[in-house]
Amino acid sequence: MNPIYLDHAATTPIHPEVIQAMVPVFEEVYGNPSSVHHFGRKARQIIDEARRVIALSINANDKEITFTSGGTEADNIALIGTALANKSKGNHIITTKMEHHATLHAAEYLEKHGFSVSYLDVMENGQVDISQLVTVLTDETILVSIMTVNNETGVIQPIREIGEILKDHQAYFHTDAVQAYGMLELDVEALGVDLLTASSHKINGPKGVGFLFIKNSVKVESLQYGGQQERKRRPGTENVAGIRGFQAAVELVANDREQRLTLYQEYKTFFLQILEKEDVEFSINGDIKNTVASIINISFPGTNVEALLTNFDLSGIAASSGSACTAGSVEPSHVLSAMYGSSNQTTVNSIRFSFGLANTKENIEEAAKKVATIVKRLAIN
Which residues does the UniProt record annotate as the domain Aminotransferase class V (predicted)? Predict the structure, then answer.
């Protein structure tokens, strides 16, 4: 039995060309990028070139890119660092109920330290309620943080429209673009965002590296104390090999993104067609017409997440859910709870399938048929 990976939204396999780009750095470039000698300068050149490539990918200046250990650290700097640096202007922050926990837990931390946080509702189509944003925005608001693509449903959020709303307001606008980077065209100027988070391992790059775009005009307080690296925003010796791998992954996406998206959309459509053909009862969470190509979130009535995921895994299928599984119980998905209410059965019977480079049409077909068999066996009629 060959395992089938349908969890690319969690992490992606490293592209072979990314590995090839990293190997020479591991073998030959061991200097500290902060050192002034030849060995250090060689490492610094690698970081500078990666920063230039990544900045270009979102229409930013290379000085506006801060390398981090990943999306979580970038989100923490964006929320906590921005809030602390701008508390003289106000103490109000706006985010949504469907954000990644890297954002939600950072917001909760700020609440414990004197900041007021408004959590916007999510409509049943999976999008944030923009009308509510206008209502809760005040003169005290200093930061708005809304993700570009939800990690559970794949639903694309109206970031450009939100940018327009905030254009003449003092609040800085941050977006967690971890699930969008490499999937959508992202232009920070056109979107009107001041801070943007992305992560390498979501686009077939290495784990342990990400970036935070910080517009030059934004004041951010460092959350760590040490050296002068990353314009004093993120001290610590840089992950040179990881950054080189991130650059390679970005370049690969730039060259073949449209082909990838077409392929992932075909996988998604094919997967759903097989479920329908096998007479599986299911519904799709969120507006499927407004999702990224790689993600689909499916509710299977009469089932529960824990049993589904266990049986999928035993049959060689890797998928995931926003529900936190513990011994004998399932905590409902906070995203689906925001969309439908915490008592809705969808919150504990939904699975996220996400497609990527580890897939072929053949293993998508095999996976869909296995999923159909398992769901029909487990469903309570």
Answer: 4-365
Do 16-251 and 4-12+256-378 fall under one CATH topology?
no
Contact between residue 365 and residue 278 where contact means Cβ atoms under 8 Å apart = no
List pLDDT tens digits, range 289-346.
Answer: 999 999 999 999 999 999 999 999 999 999 999 755 544 456 789 999 999 999 999 9
Query: pLDDT for 17-69, tens place per residue?
Result: 999 999 999 999 999 898 899 999 999 999 999 999 999 999 999 999 999 99
CATH topology of domain 4-12+256-378: Aspartate Aminotransferase, domain 1 (3.90.1150)
Q: Which of 84, 130, 284, 325 is catalytic?
A: 325
Residue-level pLDDT at 328: 47
C-alpha to C-alpha distance for 62 and 379, rounded to whole angstroms: 52
The reply to whether CATH 3.40.640.10 applies to domain 16-251 is: yes
CA separation for the pair 253, 33 (Å, rounded): 27
Q: How far apart are CA 12 and CA 34, in angstroms?
A: 31
Domain ranges for the chain, please list them.
Answer: 4-12+256-378, 16-251
